[in-house]
Design brief:
Length: 33
């Protein structure tokens, strides 16, 4: 089983990109990730 940190690092870029597309604001996407 992966630890939370491993899962977080594994999907960080995808989640950030998703939030950036959703919000249209880099600062918001960075804050949420």
């Amino acid at each position: 089983m992966e630890s939370f940190e491993e899962v977080y690092q594994k999907y960080l870029k995808e989640v950030y990109c998703f939030l950036l597309r959703l919000s249209g604001d880099r600062e918001i996407a960075e804050e949420l990730t």
